[in-house]
Design goal:
320 residues; Peroxisomal Thiolase, Chain A, domain 1; 10 helices; binds coenzyme A
Length: 320
């Protein structure tokens, strides 16, 4: 049986790191309000020359090095983003060119904050089908460029960044690999979290709009349910989980979700304080941090989860 195994992780952040206090110089907000409601203390914001594809490429290079392979070994790139460099071509093809990969399959996936989970499912299916052997799966965003900096209820919540993993098709995976993925979408909730523009409606990119309180309510229920579903699919339960790597939207959502599942909060990887919400980048960014600081180790059972605009949401169970 072929299984896809995560053999390397990487991440990249823009150079500029902005504290709540610095933000409060131009936005009508305070460090206290942001920390109390969200747990966010810092975010990185892209500067000149930093784009979704450039951050994605830097993260990809780290993941390729960690996997101990060459860029030319990659035959599939799936990039999750809602903030591509251009409407088309896919940012995945920009990454491909920057990495010097002459031929592979490369495309973007759009599921906003759940995009990385969707990308993992797509890459896993393509690898297990035998059509590809090594995939780069990337989540990368520059949400700072679609924020309304006049809207204090949203602009303080997001940051920019990228995370990447190398997934390899292995027939000798043993216990390792992607054990289960469960995804959902419910398009009835479009107006709770969306961008008020697009190529086919306004001919503009638009700005992010969110009804935060209502999103919060759905998030805790959907995320705890889908984690349970993915564990059941894998024939496992929450007590066996070593680490949860959640979408980093809000510390209160992370706490409430862990409580609902009866999970030890010390098993939850938290980076929202340092990175804020980086949409599709947030899960692979947090994953890379926890791998590099030695928390996630070979053999560990890890659950990845995310929810975002659409709504879309999902969870993956992975043995490292
Ligand atoms: N600084 C200071 N005050 C702010 C503020 C800011 N940045 N943003 C909003 N406020 C004010 C509001 O104007 C409001 O004031 P009022 O009561 O005088 O009208 C008050 O704070 C409460 O606003 P509200 O939006 O009801 O706050 P909340 O407790 O629901 O917290 C969120 C707001 C956004 C932090 C919270 O709803 C949330 O985290 N939601 C989930 C969002 C999310 O994670 N989305 C991404 C999923 S992918």
């Amino acid at each position: 049986m072929i299984r896809s195994v995560i053999t390397g992780t990487g991440s990249a952040l823009p150079v500029r790191r902005v504290s709540n206090a610095e933000l409060a110089k131009t936005v009508d907000t305070t460090d206290e309000w942001i920390v109390e409601r969200t747990g966010i203390r810092f975010r990185h914001l892209a500067g000149e020359g930093e784009t979704t594809a450039s951050l994605a490429t830097d993260a990809a290079r780290c993941a390729i090095a960690a996997a101990g392979i060459e860029a030319s070994d990659i035959d599939l790139i799936v990039l999750a983003t809602a903030t591509p460099d251009q409407t088309f071509p896919a940012s995945a093809t920009i990454v491909q060119a920057k990495l010097g990969i002459l031929d592979c399959v490369a495309f973007d996936v759009g599921a906003v904050c759940s995009g990385f989970l969707y990308a993992v499912q797509v890459a896993d299916a393509m690898l297990r089908a035998g059509a590809h052997s090594r995939a780069l799966v990337i989540g990368a965003e520059t949400f700072s460029r679609i924020l309304d900096w006049e809207d204090r209820a949203t602009c303080v919540l997001f940051g920019d960044g990228a995370g990447a993993i190398v997934m390899e098709a292995r027939s000798d995976a043993g216990e390792r690999g992607v054990l289960a993925v469960k995804l959902h979408a419910d398009g009835r909730y479009n107006e709770l979290l969306y961008v008020d523009g697009g190529p086919s409606t306004t001919g503009t990119v638009g700005k992010l709009r969110m009804k935060g309180r209502e999103v919060f309510r759905h998030a805790v229920n959907n995320l705890s349910a889908v984690m349970t579903e993915s564990l059941t699919l894998a024939g496992l339960d929450a007590a066996q989980v070593d680490w949860v790597v959640p979408h980093q939207a809000n510390a209160r959502i992370l706490d409430a979700t862990a409580r609902k599942l009866g999970l030890d909060p010390t098993k939850v990887v938290v980076t929202v304080d340092q990175h804020a919400n980086t949409s599709a980048a947030s899960v692979p960014l947090a994953l890379d941090h926890a791998v590099r600081d030695g928390r996630i180790r070979p053999g560990h059972l890890v659950v990845l989860e995310a929810m975002g605009g659409g709504f879309t949401w999902g969870a993956a169970v992975v043995r490292f």
